[in-house]
Fold Hydroxymethylglutaryl-CoA lyase.
Amino acid sequence: MDLPNKVQIKEVGPRDGLQNERKFISTEAKVEWINQLSETGMNYIEITSFVHPKWIPALCDAVDVAAQIKRKKGVTYAALVPNSKGLEKALAANLDEISVFMSASETHNLKNINKSINNTFPVLEEVVKGALSAGKKVRGYVSTVFGCPYEGVVPLHSVKKVTNKLFEMGVYEVSLGDTIGVANPQQMETVLTELEKTFSVSSLALHLHDTRGMALANTLVGLTKGITVFDSAVGGLGGCPYAKGASGNIATEDLLHMLQEMKIDTGIDFDRLMNAAKYIEKIIDKPLPSRQLKL
């Protein structure tokens, strides 16, 4: 198999992993967990989201979390930002990188952002412009690339339109989300083959949810297509508040295990990562979906 020698895992557990938890995780526990993750060798952690607390109560302590974590040299600390107000807080917290997000499907975008796709573009453009002016890199997320809980199959032209618009704004990378975990390997091959006709594979990432146990299989297809950046969440935490039935992200430790067995370098220490996974499972006080945690 033609596979990359090295890939980057972007840890989204503290943000995407916790945003849907009903039990509020204390600021102290979040900070301790992020500090543990910083010591694993990973070089990218999305620590929180500067969304209004009314929409995501689980992350209402974003400012405090950003202020209290120990920042390790070589680690990028990022946060999700929905609008200019969120950007002000993120810049004040001196985050290294900003993420913006929207959906490829109209209905999910309305549920998630409360705006149509076309009306979302100006809002995100303002965020991207402001972040770039402040010297911050900006990453883009596109949700429901492989299927929408409201509309079903999402046309590829919609995915291309949103992805292209984000690149035009100035994002350096777009993470393609299988928000409800419906993608299959054949579909993954088809979508990536089509997208690489328009976009450089080196500027695309995959954000896969494991709702139906397909995330590792889809990851393998991504690897064969030249994708070298993958989002994941320790423990398999996560889910989308606006996508009924969406379960957790691909577990970072499951992804890491597969990559290590295939001799693909990530720079992450497996034992330290497992300690961080066990820590957050204990804090959340329920079994997490991670297969490695069940061994």
Notes: The radius of gyration is 17 Å.
